[in-house]
Amino acid sequence: MKLNSTKELSLMANTIRADIIRMVNAAKCGHPAGPLGLAEIFSVLFFSEMNFDPKNPQKERDIFVLSNGHVCAGSYSAMAHAGYFPEDALLTFRKFGSPLQGHPSRKYFPFIDNSSGPLGEGLGIACGYAAALRLDNKPSRVYCVVSDGEHDEGSTWEAVLFASKYKLDNLVAIMDRNYIQIDGTTEDVMPLDSIEEKYRAFNWNVISIDGNNIPQILSALKQAKDCKGKPTMIIANTTPGKGVSYMEKNYKWHGVAPKDEDAAKALAELAEERKKIERE
Amino acid sequence: MHLLNPLSPDLKKDSTREGYGKALLELGEKDSRIVALTADLAESVRVHYFAEKFPQRFFQCGICEQNMAVVAAGLAYAGKIPFMSSFGAFSPGRNWEQIRSAICYGNANAKIVSTHTGLTVGEDGATHQALEDVSLMRSIPNIRVLVPCDFEQAKKAIYAAAKIQGPVYVRCGREKMPIFTTENTPFELGKISLYKDGSDIALFASGALVHEALLAAAELEKEGISAAVLNVYDLTEMDNSTIEKYARKTGAFLTVEDHQIKGGLGSAICEAVCSTSPVPVHRMGMRMEFGQSGKGSELLKHYGLYSSNIAKVAKEHLKNKK
Predict the structure, then answer these.
(1) Number of structural domains, chain A?
(2) Structural domain includes residue A219
(3) Tens-digit pLDDT profile for residues A148-168
(4) For chain B, does the N or the C end have fewer beta carbons within 10 angstroms?
(5) How far apart are the first and last CA of chain A?
(6) Residue B296 within a domain
């Protein structure tokens, strides 16, 4: 299912946000802030950018590698609405027997392209996919969502070197630059700025955007497609906890689930936001 | 048993890593899904043969063992059959978590081959002598662990690895060692191969020390002690029926490996014996210490991992028989 207008994609982002709150609240644990900040990116990737057919998973398609697996509430929601599984199953997230493991698992949910959780692995896995697609002369592209915090991992930089060496222009990575990690802000825990200059120095095509702005996401993905001979890193500056006032920019909501009352408040705010989008 | 005479002075010598390199080249010619990766050690790990023939299917990852493992996982998810190789100290030594998560948990059809393991790495010294790799790999679910004993068997292990759908670890070695198995020597996954029958004690050996165990058994024979020699090349799950049979038949086990005595072959045999038919087991290997520089043969001598000492320890161990 493709959504063609910014409005439709915004509404989908709003739907994903409400799902994240419901899922994390039902699970009584999980990571709300990260996926809330990524809702527009998940919406654009799954409902505009990527080619795939949930009814025919063997068919040639684009690859989606989620490196920061803890934000999976958002990608699970997008995949449910895209038709991979019934939306009701979202509320089994993190529960015993659910395909929707706390961190994504190919073992329990075979439609995903990688198991993740341990940070600093997804970009390298994406490189492997991109290299294989190129060997087979396939036109599919590889989309990899990475966090900023996982750039503390040396293994991430090993993958950055590899993608650049092999000129993997069928790979586009999107960094969730939300400036938070578990113990505080990224710049307090282990400073990363200027992350743009670092990537340019590693010979990547670097595009900085407001990661909660749908036209900017669409335009960056288009520019990535047009770039030949280099992998692309889209630095998506996002607001962690976006859409829920008390979570926004507060690193304490990285890995804490809202209790019922807080969840109700969050859902009310998101419902208001939805009305606003619909009026636009 | 399809073995050459282990005592023959005319046995040809070559390394298990060379067997890997040659087998990989052959596989590459037959199956275009085979790809190879290394971390700045192409010639050492003998994938240079493959790299020269199939440059497009060879990935030089640089000194990045962690990334090599996840790139291999990605290639495997996309339908390739990647063989990634380095020294055991670095792969799986440094990239164990990537192997666990991306390859084993993610069920990637990826093959991990270490070409430099154990004391026989030699002069490079303790940092480069992987003596814990079998333990590291055996403790992860969903991966098969193979330890070939010579050049011929290394080729078989690599062919088998390519056929298996899923993660495989193959432990090879650097030094040229006598080739005493042949093309016709059986290599069966999940089995332990009997190389010499005997009734007083059973010597279970793996990798580089199977040949020494055969020599030890010949020495024991001269003293009227009948020692069986069994090659354990698949350390994934133990061949309980063979273990039980030899527990009843001999009543005493000795294990011999170029690896720490915790977590490798010795532990695997003890685990199996405890649940089948308990007999006293003595484990020979590195007694939980680090190696040092020297020729492989000097080091095996220093740490007691050579035929006469195996025979001596076996005789002492006979006293523990109930």
Answers:
(1) 1
(2) yes
(3) 999 999 999 999 999 999 999
(4) C
(5) 22
(6) yes
